[in-house]
Amino acid sequence: MGKTALITGITGQDGAYLAELLLHKGYTVVGAERRASTRNRARLDELGITDEIIFTDFDLADQGNMVRALEKHAPDEVYNLAAQSFVALSFEQPVMTGDITGVGVARLLEAIRTVNPETRFYQASTSEMFGKVQAVPQNETTPFYPRSPYGVAKLYGHWMTVNYRESYDMYACSGILFNHESPLRGVEFVTRKITLAVARIKHGLQRELRLGNLDAKRDWGYAKEYVAGMHAMLQQAAPEDFVLATGETHTVEEFVEAAFEAAGLEWRDFVVIDPAFVRPAEVDLLLGDPSKAKAKLGWTPQTSFRELVALMVEADLERVARPLSYA
Ligand code: NDP
Ligand code: GDR
């Protein structure tokens, strides 16, 4: 019998790529999605996998529906990728972010402990927990210092995952993932905002791109490779936490420059700095050390920064050439 995996956040960037990977590996994939006025399965449609997924109603705000979903589908593995994941919004909606991104993890761990504590659990932790960084590069032992309500909420979810592992001997692990991007990245995040703008400018649909802080440094990898690391973390003999990162850092400005260059444009002709996109507190420098994942999971990032920028620009140029297909 093949395994069953339940993925929360299936409609997001990582959920879509992870579902594709697990289907390819022969898993039954249960897609836990929240109710919205319109279904948000565009990414799954784009990968052509929607019909292969068993969907279940699921909201991180509601404990009862988690218990029922776990009882009904009896997954071997649960990947908790759902979250209010946009750092900027977390400053506007800190309490909701805390409830979904933080306390939601406790609800899900409790539901698993109640229904079947043998279920393996993956928590989507983040480099945002390092925030005001205490060391460069950052690894699994670097102290945390979150700089946003999102980072604080994720830190709670992270420690709850560690705590359930230590208290109840559950196979629960936390992947501390640095930024990872793709053509399926949400358009509010800076990389996709940039590549979509480049494509629209190239096609004469947009005249300028308004951005905030161009000096922040991020360790950007390719999302498709990162979901393979999530799966590998749940296949070990014993649960542990792992950093996934490229080990390279670049400024937002470097991303902007590379993206415009990939389309034959000069970024300074189009970019406008707008204080509306500057955050109350910033994470200035993220640079991950993925040595542990390399040694124990055999995981290594393959796509370079330039390749990532180019593949995102190319995908958006193609989408924009097909009107109404890129929202
Ligand atoms: P996305 O923002 O693309 O996806 C978030 C998902 O969470 C969506 O499917 C969304 O559903 C779902 N969701 C939001 N609120 C709820 C809720 N109340 N109940 C159930 N589902 C909900 O995120 P990514 O795919 O980029 O990231 C996946 C996870 O990894 C997130 O937890 C993120 O915080 C974390 N992470 C991401 C990194 C990155 O660089 N991408 C790096 C490190 C961590 P809907 O479609 O309905 O909005
Ligand atoms: P981040 O990603 O906050 O690192 O969180 P985001 O792409 O939103 O910001 C990256 C950096 O770019 C700067 N920036 C802007 N950001 C946005 N979104 N829009 C702008 O116009 C803009 N101008 C400059 C930001 O200030 C920041 O420094 C992402 C999310 O996926 C989290 O869920 C995840 O945990 C972390 O990555 C790792």
From TrEMBL:
Q: Could you list this entry's UniProt keywords, alphabetically sorted.
A: Lyase, NADP
GO BP annotation list? 'de novo' GDP-L-fucose biosynthetic process
**GO terms of molecular function:** GDP-mannose 4,6-dehydratase activity; NADP+ binding
Q: What class of enzyme is it?
A: lyase
List the cofactors.
NADP(+)
Q: List the SUPFAM superfamilies.
A: NAD(P)-binding Rossmann-fold domains (SSF51735)
The answer to whether UniProt assigns keyword Cytoplasm to this entry is: no
What region holds the NAD(P)-binding domain?
A: 6-312
EC? 4.2.1.47
Q: Does the keyword NADP apply?
A: yes
Q: Name one Pfam family in it.
A: GDP_Man_Dehyd
Catalytic activity reads: GDP-alpha-D-mannose = GDP-4-dehydro-alpha-D-rhamnose + H2O
| Record's function text | Catalyzes the conversion of GDP-D-mannose to GDP-4-dehydro-6-deoxy-D-mannose.
Which NCBIfam families does the entry mention? gmd (TIGR01472)
- Per the similarity annotation, which family is this? Belongs to the NAD(P)-dependent epimerase/dehydratase family. GDP-mannose 4,6-dehydratase subfamily.
The family database entries (PANTHER family) matched by this protein are listed as: GDP-MANNOSE 4,6 DEHYDRATASE, GDP-MANNOSE 4,6-DEHYDRATASE
Full protein name: GDP-mannose 4,6-dehydratase
Species name: Truepera radiovictrix (strain DSM 17093 / CIP 108686 / LMG 22925 / RQ-24)
Its taxonomic path starts at: Bacteria, Thermotogati, Deinococcota, Deinococci, Trueperales
Q: Which gene name does the record give?
A: gmd
